[in-house]
UniProtKB/TrEMBL annotation:
SUPFAM superfamilies: ADP-ribosylation. This is Probable RNA 2'-phosphotransferase. It comes from Chryseobacterium hagamense. InterPro entries: Ptrans_KptA/Tpt1, RNA_2'-PTrans_C, RNA_2'-PTrans_KptA, RNA_2'-PTrans_N. The gene is kptA. The lineage of its organism: Bacteria, Pseudomonadati, Bacteroidota, Flavobacteriia, Flavobacteriales. Its EC number is 2.7.1.-.
Amino acid sequence: MNEQHKKRISKFLSLVLRHKPEVINLTLDENGWAAVDELMEKCAKNERSFTREELMEMVETNDKKRFVFNEDKTRIRANQGHSIAIDLALQPQQPPEFLYHGTAEANISSILENGIEKRSRQHVHLSQDRDTATKVGMRHGKPVILTIETEKMHEAGIPFYLSENNVWLTDFVDSKYIRNDH
């Protein structure tokens, strides 16, 4: 599959599996799973057709591991990043001492004053390393990497979750736990 086609389909899958399944009248269960056959059929009706092999390649080679199949590959869902109510059935985890948040330079003053909010998403996303956080921050402008004191947050009773693609999730990061090392 050529890269342009793969990127187009991946973006469309992000839209329907994370934000707007109604665009193609797709049914997601309470945990965000969609039947692969239904997804493929409804995408094809909306001029976004792909083969099962192409879908498997997209899931397996996506650099951010955005999607996952169930064990028998009959169902698919996004790993995180939903703006719709989905129960990912994640269990609380103890985070490492520090995690990182990449953002645009334009957002820094607001974040340092108000903290990091999930806004329209279900969770705040945090990265395990600076490189990943930098890539995230670059999507929004000149990147700034913030160090989050996650061990202190966890000790204060704030829950953390680890998605299947190793993105750390929490509901809110108070500014007192944020370090701007730049």
